Amino acid sequence: xxxxxxxxxxxxxxxxxxxxxxxxxxxxxxxxxxxxxxxxxxxxxxxxxxxxxxxxxxxxxxxxxxxxxxxxxxxxxxxxxxxxxxxxxxxxxxxxxxxxxxxxxxxxxxxxxxxxxxxxxxxxxxxxxxxxxxxxxxxxxxxxxxxxxxxxxxxxxxxxxxxxxxxxxxxxxxxxxxxxxxxxxxxxxxxxxxxxxxxxxxxxxxxxxxxxxxxxxxxxxxxxxxxxxxxxxxxxxxxxxxxxxxxxxxxxxxxxxxxxxxxxxxxxxxxxx
Length: 273
Hints:
The protein is α+β, with helices and mostly antiparallel strands. The chain has helices at about 5, 10-20, 25-30, 35-45, 60-65, 85-90, 90-105, 130-135, 140-150, 195-205, 210-215, 225-270, and strands at about 20-25, 50-55, 55-60, 110-115, 160, 165-175, 175-185. It has two domains: about 5-65, no CATH class; about 85-250, Beta-Lactamase. Helix 7 (about 90-105) runs antiparallel to helix 12 (about 225-270).
């Protein structure tokens, strides 16, 4: 007769299979491109399904990849271009054309960035308020854009930016790894314009002249809630298009490099004979 404790003991193979389906914090960091503390906050507030194994967090692979919109194989490096930067896989002219199209389609500002907030395009369809604040220095927004990438709410939504306007972003993926963002913004919130104290604070932070900011304060995009919802529903389609283009380009580059490597090897072999 088996002891009671043995009756409910899981087979070793079952334990191993379960462990194989759990990702470490470091693996999830690599997938989401965020720091460790962000992963912990997501686990603690329920945005990311997690279990405690001893004193360590572990994350069910299928849940993580479901959030990333696909691949449930558990493989992290699912894209042939994963070791490349987004700007090396997406021609600048193509990225700019998509940003311009999104800005015209949604009637807001739009920019494509990497996960560090570095702009890969110019900001399309800039509103007068944005121009007054930054006057040809959109890179001054890089930190704010980077912070958008740290907020892992995979469904796009409008949130207040550091200059008071609403913006939204959708992630660009390579396989199941986040590599960039399509960001739209310049939208006035429900309460606008801001108070004079708020204007002075934003002007000081951006280095702009307060009087210039005041003159352009209402040169923003006035978008009602139904229009905002429509933008959010379609923003993921724009980032999805960029994801597919970058992924296809990565596959093509890898094939060309393989052909070049093979041709080089044949050439060397020919010289040695």
